Amino acid sequence: MYRAEIEQNWGEYVALLKEAIAIPSVKGKAETGAPFGVEARQVLDYVTGRAKDYGLKTRIINDAMGYAQLGEGEDYIGIVGHLDVVAADGPGWLSSPFKLDEREGYFYGRGVLDNKGPILSCLFALKLLKERNFNPRIPVRIIFGTDEESGSADVPLYLSEEKAPIFGFTPDCKFPVVYGERGVVALELTTRFAHGVLDSLGDFHGGMAKDFVPDDIELSGGNQNYSAKGLRTPSNAPELGKNAITALAGILQNNLENKELRHYFSWLTHSFHEKHFGQGVGIDFPDQESGRLILTPYKIKRENNLIHLSLSIRYPVTVTEDQVINGLSENLYEGTSIKITRSLSGTYVDKTKQEIEDLSSIYEEVTGLNGQPVTTTGATYARSMPNIVAFGPSFPGEKGIAHKENEYIKIEHLKQMIEIYMKSIERLCQ
After folding, report:
1. Interatomic CA distance for residues 228 and 240, integer angstroms
2. Which distant-in-sequence residues (6+ apart) come within 8 Å of 343 by Cβ?
3. Rounded-to-integer distance, Cα 186 and Cα 363, Å
4. Cα torsion for 267, 270, 273, 279, to the nearest 10°?
5. Bridge partners, residue 229, by sequence
6. 127 CB contacts (<8 Å, ≥6 apart)?
7. 5-26: per-residue pLDDT in tens?
8. Tens digits of residue pLDDT in 210-232
9. 108-123 as b/e: b if 16+ CB within 10 A
10. pTM, whole model, 2 decimals?
């Protein structure tokens, strides 16, 4: 019954997604009425406008987040996703990143997985339920954010005017239900060298950001140019890629004339190259709940007599940030200091909670797959919006798709998602 309705209305969902993908909602300069850029506000207006056309109650909060609601009451079930996207400036796109492209059973485009496709599938699920005359005992809100990719500064703006949901989920991670998210800490390791040591080194160039493994780094200037190529992958899955920073360090340790620089890059290589779980710097902290710590060097920069090396670390749910910092401090190159540039505590929800059991059973019912709750290395709105767990959109075996060129989602999985979310809304709101 659910699937037949989805198929009958599929063209309308695709049109909704196509228009949303076409808005390049990368974070931009703050302007009046658009704290995260005009494109972020444009896509928020578009989606809430369509929700209003569906007959849902809509509101935009502090120009930052909007919602579409069915039902009345003070408490509500919340489904929280985001309409902002990361930049799409990589060279490997086979089609325009801001034009929905269909090829061999897949949709391609920036945001099709992360996170426009999934949150719009939730909105469309609510639309289909409304057309059935679904009358929720507890109201349900689909909440649309516009700053998830840049720190979730939209959530405090929402919570300054609205209550938090009593329970809900974000379709911005993976299936089955994610009951725990690892802690995240970004560090800058700064090493000071004697005056003149770095004069022959030059500057580092390449695409470097905290959300991906760098794949092309050059060292320009000085007596000779060096370069290394890797394979870009999300920073929470470094084992799927090849890190150009550590590859370049391996080249430099054998080719630079200065002995001190050779020692530094030898330390960098032996500490981090192909050592994605912290084992090279004494912080390999696994736990039964969430597995091994994950470490990614994502940026290197020369500044006068300093070299700054930036790390992204995701640590297990039973490990503390202090344990990570203390362990790393004992394994640094001489003269290196640590600065914390980002810190997110982990989240952990009792996986025997009735609502989690309900979502798990619905996932099993629709897919026939094991619905045992899991943990993640990712960071979602569940860290900043109270009473939220992650639920979808990636299915088992799908990893390393977001934040890359040719971002994709399987069309059959989108249809399954809408069915899962229709049933989830029904169950949670009754």
Report:
1. 17
2. 184, 185, 186, 321
3. 34
4. -110
5. 216
6. 51, 54, 56
7. 999 999 999 999 999 999 999 9
8. 889 999 999 976 668 999 999 99
9. bbbbbbbbbbbbbbbb
10. 0.77
